[in-house]
Specification:
The protein is about 40% helix and about 15% strand. With about 325 residues, it is of the alpha/beta class. The structure holds phosphoric acid mono(formamide)ester.
């Protein structure tokens, strides 16, 4: 059984990238694999892009799709084994995963970090428990520490848009009023380390990502220095890994603005969305011809379709 939870589940990233571009050119060309198969999408947290693009991907493959916002529509789920369930939770994740497995051939699940206990989040407690109890392959729709479908879409977008063989890609921290997980940033780093790019991360002191991800990558605390000559600027907020869950919304000089983009080599702007305008990025930048945010969102469909097709074919 093949699960998809990180770039580590791929045997050959370039082969997957090639397949994604092939699917994008012929999205309805693989329907024999999805016929009479059912995808279940389970959301414990909100979504726009992941929900719709993964549904579209499955429909393009001829699959049936069922979607449930388990976090708001289902019974309250118990995640811990051995609990005496005489309090708020009504259904254990073991039964929930086992039951959904009987209705579906592949299950997608979204579960965010709670940002309260770093060890618990980084153990991927919920995703791991769900996979342990599921009887069919599971695809991550974003987990506590990773967002592989987003990163795959970002890789496709960079491949389509790059003008040189090995572009400079800068992942820049940006301010945000709320504490956000590190998942998108961790995952982007993990995928870019396997891609043919020069990756630079820039973030304020105290906001370094886990060394598990940054090992071998240039990390600069001077954003202007990092942006110099960049071909792609990927903006994202994440809360502190070191001082787990802490934020710094007052660091407004980290907002991606036109003067910042002027430091780049006519760089393209990227963000996974949803984005807080004039906090993370100015209107001027996100509305410019160099913004790729809609292209990224569009490629979510082909990333998901490639992953689902590989799972249906059960090949790595
Ligand atoms: N980028 C992304 O995952 O968007 P949603 O949270 O809307 O799914």
């Amino acid at each position: 059984m093949m699960n998809f939870t990180s770039v580590k589940d791929l045997t050959n990233i370039n082969a997957w990238l090639k397949k994604a571009l092939e699917i994008k050119a012929n999205p309805f060309g693989f329907q024999e694999f999805g016929k009479n198969k059912t995808l279940g999408l389970i959301f414990l947290n909100p979504s726009l892009r992941t929900r719709l693009s993964t549904q579209k991907a499955a429909l393009n493959l001829g699959m049936n799709v069922m979607v449930m916002n388990l976090g708001t529509e289902g019974w309250s789920i118990e995640m811990t084994d051995g609990t005496v369930m005489d309090q708020g939770s009504q259904e254990h994740i073991k039964e929930a995963a086992g039951v959904i497995s009987q209705y579906c051939d592949i299950i997608g699940i979204r579960t965010f970090a709670e940002l309260k206990n770093r060890d618990e989040d980084y153990s991927e407690k919920v995703l791991t428990k769900f996979i342990q109890s599921a009887k069919v392959p599971v695809v991550s729709l974003e987990s506590a520490t990773l967002h592989p479908l987003q990163s795959f879409a970002d890789l496709i977008t960079i491949e389509e848009q790059k003008k040189i063989t090995r572009p400079k890609v800068v992942l820049s921290w940006a301010p945000h009023p709320r504490a956000l997980p590190q998942a998108v940033a961790n995952s982007f780093v993990e995928w870019m380390k396997q891609a043919d790019v020069e990756l630079v991360i820039t973030n304020p002191v105290g906001f370094d990502l886990s060394p598990e991800f940054t090992d071998g990558v240039t990390v600069l605390h001077n954003q202007n220095e990092a942006l110099a000559g960049a071909n792609f600027v990927y903006a994202k907020n994440w809360s502190s890994y070191e001082n787990y869950g802490q934020t710094a919304p007052n660091l407004t000089d980290w907002t991606i603005s036109k003067p910042k983009m002027d430091l780049t080599n006519n760089g393209k702007f990227m963000h996974c969305l949803p984005v807080r305008r004039n906090v993370v990025v100015t209107d001027e930048v996100i509305d410019s011809g160099n913004s790729l945010v809609l292209e990224q969102a569009n490629n979510r469909t082909y990333a998901a379709q490639t992953v689902l097709l590989k799972m249906l074919q059960n090949v790595g």
